[in-house]
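User: Okay, second chain of the day. Same drill as before: sequence in, structure tokens out.
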Amino acid sequence: MADDEDLQPYLELYQKSVPAGLAGERRMRELITPPFMDLTSENVLRDDIALEEYNAWRAYMGWSLWDVIAARSTEGESGLIPRQEYETISFLQIWSLYPQLMSEITEAVGIDGVIEIGRTPRREIGTKINLAHTWSPQNCCHLGRSIALEFGLETPDSRRGELQTAVQFARRLAFGTWGEGAAFASGRGYKAPLLEDDMVEMLIANEQRLDDPAQRQIFRQFNATTELMGYLLHYDCRFGVQDTGPYPVPGGGFMIVRDHWLNETSYPWATPAEGLPYCVTEAMIFRPDADVEITINDLGTTFSEPRDYLQHLSGVAVFARDTEDTPMSGLRLLDIDDMVEITKKSKAATLALYRTLASKDRDQKIRDGIYVYAADHIRPHAKAAGLWDTMQPRIAELTDLALAGWGPLADGDAASVLGPLFVKGLAYSPLKNG
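Assistant: Same drill. Structure tokens below.
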């Protein structure tokens, strides 16, 4: 277990030698052979991965996890929700279940079917088949295995092949999303313009200009309120928000497309969200009069330089996907009055949800958080394969491995386990023959 002083050098540079961002990505490519972080039409179809290929993936993913979590600080701490406790135990839950679930999905739809599921974010908005849900699940498997080894719950030789199952499942989804080349936004210059041209054109065509300061303020309140609602509903994690882009805008400027999930009915505590859309999507169009550099990481989080890119907001097109199953033809274009109404409902729902969560005891909140991670990381893919109804009961019940880790993690110091895994890359040490 490392203290803060031990971790500080690792927060500044990955393994005290590799920086974040584009410079770090270039350096990792110099260090790693073969370049298995890249996708080809041949290597995504194979079930068998050579050890050197798998270790190349692990090496890159260790840096990628650090780049997203440690260097970018994408998630804060909450006094309401014991997030580090539920995260660490959920990694054990996910490691217990996901390789088998991924195999069942692949068996049901075939490898080409998994790739087709991965194409969804090119054709749809308001879908949780997205960057985060491709990048994160296989990370959780590796983290869960490392925690199991830390507590002596498994041996280094246990279930090694199942790690490769998780990796190939992620790579097939990524191939559907990106095609050949880098599997990650980091390898594509931190740009994620996923939507196909006709979707981009439709969003831009429905732009509502925000020249009126009052309307601009209404949208900014809408954006902030729905984002907060999504975070709380998803137990303070990023599954409630996702960005893609930037997309060029005719005549100059760029567009960022942002999803906020407000009414995820698969969560039993979501009742305060009744009456809200399943998801709202904000196509935000910017025509800055100065240079603005936009980057989007593999959790679908936007960063900019300068930081306050919203000051350059020129117009928006906002859509509601009223239910998870609403087709793209059924999207509802929102006007200013709709935004005011949804903002009002979201504020009320957030307050009611806060009271609901505050009334729960700590153990129940940990169990709820475990369910968020264990269900949400695979539910979109399982649902697309028609298997969610049979998988959900297995996910909802804590596995023996998760229960074995409960004591030292829920009642101990989860942070002392999580910190080194995230910032030192311990979950991605190379595997050896044997």
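The longest helix spans residues 83-118.

User: Thanks, on to the next one.
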